[in-house]
Amino acid sequence: MAENLITESAKKQLDSIFESLSVVAEDTHVFVCDMRYDYSRWDKKLVETFGLPGEYMYAAGNIWEEHIHPDDRKSYSDGISAIFDGTQKGHDIQYRAQKPDGEYVICTCRGIAVSAEDGTPVYFGGSIRNHSQRSHIDKLTGLRNQYGFFDDLKGYIKNKIPIRIGMVGIGKLTEINEVYGYDVGNKILQTFGRFLMDNVTNRGGTYRLDGSRFAIISTVLSDEEFKKSYEDIRAYFRKGINVHDNADIIIELNAGMLSLDDFNVDDQTLYSCLNFAYEESKLNKHGDLVTFHNDLTGENRRSLEMLHVIRASITQDFKGFYLVYQPVVDAKTEKLIGAEALLRWKHKDYGVVPPDLFIPFLEKDPLFPVLGEWILETALKDAHKILTYVPDAVINVNLSYAQLERSDFKEVVWRTLQDTGFSPKQLCLEITERCRLLDMELLRNIIVALRAGGVHIALDDFGTGFSSIGLVKSLPFDTIKIDRSFVQQIEEDEKEKQLLTSIKEMAGIYGAKVCVEGIETSGMRDIIKNFSIHSFQGYFYSKPITIEELLSKLKSGSDCFSKA
Ligand code: C2E
Ligand code: CA
Ligand code: CA
Q: What's residue 154's pLDDT?
């Protein structure tokens, strides 16, 4: 090293590069190396934090390597060698580095080599982020936590850096904890976090989000590489890992992914969409990687962007949101006995957007419960007006499973009923099969408490999922709403008739009434009338209409929807 001392002019050049990088460094620590002399200048604060010899160093890479955790050293030194021998242009690597007091902290280092005209690398410069500075570290795994994840995500959005984000979680961790104890659960989390970090190495950052879920953010991995990586990790854990008395524990994973290349979004919208993809993987895809496609609405209406605007509308006094009502009629008399409130959102650029295009993605969003409260309150206020024409009408309001999860959910219902002076007996809350994502005991307690207070509970979309029957067996429902897909072909299909008979009988066993949705023709109505169903809903009677339209129809009497 001594035989190749840096010249005065080369040092000046190094300083000026260092200074120009420092201007844009924000809260990271800059380093620049003149590779011809292996002479570097490092950010003073970093030098002090890690007790390095000085701002200027020969062979800084070797000095720094001494500070890196032995388990992380190989991927670090491989990365550096590849840059020095010119096989790689840059790196984006995460490792643990030791401070003078012995504590390891997670650092991410991003650097790039600059070559001379003949292609030989001359400078290697970049920045190191010391993540311990803000307590953004998960104690158990040593990985960056949810705060770190959001911090980084915001940074990528702000600087318009395209990324891919993955969410990977361990299935059935609760059961593992119950069967083997928390120590084993913790060990699995540590092993998994470590494995994920090793697998991603210098291709992105690894985070532990909460409980059993982890995330990866990468600027370099392609969709295919992401998928391949996930399949490798999945195969490894499926073979079983040995953390308990030599017994292998088989671990199943779930994963969701999305790409960010449109920056008119915020971190929370992205997170909600990522969450949606993850839950899809868990619920409906047996753990296969589910990609959130940013073009769900077609016609070039970018759904991420739209979701972002929808979220913003929630915070702007629910701007653009309104409810429409679809009549529910008595199956025998065809008189109106109630109505179902259905959410809409209207915007100058997107037109009227039906709920299927946004509710599923926002269900887990921290803003959703606020919207849910607004829906309930608005529906009950409108329902009062319906009661002037049909005093014993029941108003149906749809719930998302995430609303039920909130500890204050019951209070919200009681308070809204009280504030609007509405009778609980005339409110029916509809829940769907998605609520099986919740803890069954919790769900049962909520339903039992609400019913004890007079509120009706309906199971919506019966027959669209796998566990409808299971739900009817384990939870007490007042009404079962049969999805229209079950009766669509009933005019031609004998089997649909038999199925309807069976469902009707099953509902009878559990003391629930049956409502058939999606009655579209008089033919369907005539056939289904023979099944002693309680109520009907469908386009045949009415499409969802505004409260004003509904009231103006009701003026002529509750039989205004009956058809000959
Ligand atoms: P859902 O609760 O099953 O609501 C019935 C859906 O079927 C409505 O679509 C309605 O317009 C449509 N529909 C009714 N009759 C017929 C028919 O005869 N034929 C056909 N083809 N369709 C019919 P919409 O309003 O687009 O709602 C879709 C879903 O969005 C709802 O399905 C519900 O799951 C969800 N949703 C709507 N409003 C809310 C809400 O306020 N909160 C929550 N959490 N979810 C909501
Ligand atoms: Ca419904
Ligand atoms: Ca339904």
A: 92
